[in-house]
Amino acid sequence: MAHVHRVSGIALAIFLPVHFWVLGDALQLDSFLAWSEQPLVKLGEWAIVLALAAAFFYVQLKHPFSHLWRAAAKLDIPQLANPEVRAAAADADELLIDFYARHRLRFALSCLCYLIAWSMGPIEILIYLTLLHQPLTWMTPVLVEALGLLVERVTFLIPGKLVSQEGGKALILSSLGYPAAIGFAIGLLRRIKELTWVLMGLLGLTIHRMITERTTYADAPPRPNLIKMHSAHEGEIS
Q: What's the Cα-to-Cα distance from 99 to each of 60, 114, 145, rounded to whole Å?
C-alpha cells in the first residue's frame, strides 16, 4: 500500500505541471470570447446545461445507489457483498425519492440558495481585485470564476483542491494579462476564507452537540438507585 501512495504521489507531481501547461496553451481567450458570442453557441450552452440538469434529476429518481451497489458487487469484494451495504444503498435511494416527492419547496429553496451562493463568486473575485488595486471590467470576475470552476472540475481528484486553486487562478489571470502573483494571492485568500468557514461550521456543530447532549441529559428521567442500603435491623423478625 505504501508503494501505491508513492507512485500516486509521483504521478500527481508529474500530472499537475503538464496539465496546467496544456490548459494554458489551449486557452485562446480572445478567439474563444468572440466565438462564444454567437447566438447558436449561447443556445447550445443553455441546452447542454438544461439537459445535464434534467439527466441528473432523472438518474436520482431511478435508484442510483442500488445500481452502483450491483455494479460494485460484481468486483467480488467481500466488503461490498455485505447485506448492510445493500440496505444502506436502498435507504439512500428511498430518501432521495421521498425528498423530491414530499419536500419540493425545500428542494426549490435549496437550489435558490445554492444559485445565490454560486453567483457570489464573481463578486468575491471583484472584491479581491479591487483590494489588490488591479484594473478590471465587469467581465473579468465572471470569466475568472467560470474558468476557475472549469479547472476545479477537471482536477476534482486532487484532495482539497491542492495547488489547483492557486495554480488555476494564476494561469487564468496571467492569460488575461494580470501578473501571476495576483492569481496566487487570490487563490490563497479564497483558501483562507474556506478554512475560516469550515472552522466556524465545526465550532457551531460542536456547540450544538454540547447543548443538545446537555438538554437530553437534563430531561432524562432519573435512574433508579440500584444500590439499596439496608439497615442493621431490616429483615429481622419481630
A: 11, 17, 31
8 Å CB contact between 70 and 93: no
**Model confidence over 66-80: pLDDT tens digits?**
888 888 777 777 777
Rounded Cα distance between 59 and 219, Å, is 44
In Å, how far are 71, 86, 89, 101, 132 from 95, measured between CA atoms? 21, 14, 10, 10, 46
Which three three-digit cell numbers place residue 27?
A: 486557452
DSSP 232: T
Q: What are phi and psi of 108, to 5 degrees?
A: -65, -40
Which tens digits make up the pLDDT trace of 178-229? Answer: 888 888 888 888 889 888 989 999 999 999 999 888 877 666 666 555 454 4
How far is it, in rounded angstroms, from Cα 66 to Cα 57? 16
> Model-level pTM?
0.57
CA 31/CA 69 separation, integer angstroms = 45
